[in-house]
Amino acid sequence: MLSARERAHVTQVWDLIAGHEAHVGAELLLRLFTVYPSTKIYFRHLGTCPDEAQLQSHGQRMLAAVGVAVQRMDDLRAALSPLADLHAQVLRVDPANFPLLIQCFQVVLASHLQDEFTVEVQAAWDKFLTGVAVVLTEKYR
């Protein structure tokens, strides 16, 4: 899926995010809700303040799943299978939301990393996150 260089870009960015998952995740969710208000339907219980504990908690869980995917890039299907089952069979999240989340995630990364989020790094993250989204939507079939 990813070349060695792309893997290095993904890992490098993840190393910068590590330790800030709650904050970055909350920002990601708020951006998603602002830009795509229809996605808030799945998160009615979450507020709109970046410091809200529930928002940060869910943001941290989301980014923890991304962290698992980063660690297991070679086996995304196995790594994300429980999460894919949850979203497809229990939560029944519209799979069209995953590409929206990817877009918002990249904007958040770019806003924090600025010059470090080069075209090559962005392309690697886009490819990686698209792979994650594909795995998460496979259970819908």
UniProtKB/TrEMBL annotation:
The keyword Metal-binding applies. GO terms for cellular component: blood microparticle; haptoglobin-hemoglobin complex; hemoglobin complex. GO terms for molecular function: haptoglobin binding; heme binding; metal ion binding; organic acid binding; oxygen binding; oxygen carrier activity; peroxidase activity. Residues 1-141 form the Globin domain. Keywords: Acetylation, Heme, Iron, Metal-binding, Oxygen transport, Transport. InterPro entries: Globin (IPR000971), Globin-like_sf (IPR009050), Globin/Proto (IPR012292), Hemoglobin_a-typ (IPR002338), Hemoglobin_oxygen_transport (IPR050056). The keyword Metal-binding applies. GO terms for biological process: hydrogen peroxide catabolic process. It comes from the Eukaryota. Belongs to the globin family. This is Hemoglobin subunit mu. It comes from Sciurus carolinensis (Eastern gray squirrel).
